[in-house]
Amino acid sequence: MTITTILLDLDDTLIHNSTDRFIPAYLKSLGNYLSDIAPAEEIISLVFHAIEEMQANQDVAVTNYDAFYRPFLQGLKLSYEQVHPRVTAFYRQVYPELRRFVTPVPQVRQFIADFFEAGYRICIATNPLFPATAIEQRLAWADALDFPYELITTMETMHFSKPNPRYYQEILARLDISAAEAIMVGDNPEHDIAPARQVGLATWRITAAADGAGNGSLAEFHDWLLHPHKP
Ligand SMILES: [Mg+2]
Fold it and tell me: Measured between alpha carbons, how far is 19 from 125 in angstroms, rounded to an integer?
């Protein structure tokens, strides 16, 4: 069966974003922003706890969003109505400042345009631990937001997360395709490559430069997919 669909990871695939720097800065600014409702350190530790609960979720009836908010609100002893507007305001007012931690991957916009031009369907398969606004802002920083993607995986809509293989099965079900029709492109061996292979997807691991088959830069993936017979 031929590949019709490309699953693209976001961070360190479409945009350079060292999670070692980004995540601590993200949590620190969220903790500070919400420090009127609880001490910043308590917010940060509750976020970590709620992320763990979300990643442990195996219930197809519970979205990642609900799996996060349940323990987060319990820990804060506050209602959704008390907390959610503040979180929304954080993403509108403060999150945009985190752009300083990312740098573009050259030619991303052209590569994605070329994939669509060649007839591929595209899913942004970023770990759905974050709300749609956070993911859309990072896609905009990558200059890759305004494309007709089939699906962008977010915490609001998904029920599993990487590295759970069920995350990839859920994508295939939503796109109504078999594993043989899609390829997963991402940088992380444990999150992007191993579980995608486990469910039968082809994979391309983003590395600085090609080192054998099935890996290399986004530019090399683009050339391999669209110009496979180039000498
Ligand atoms: Mg990544």
Answer: 16
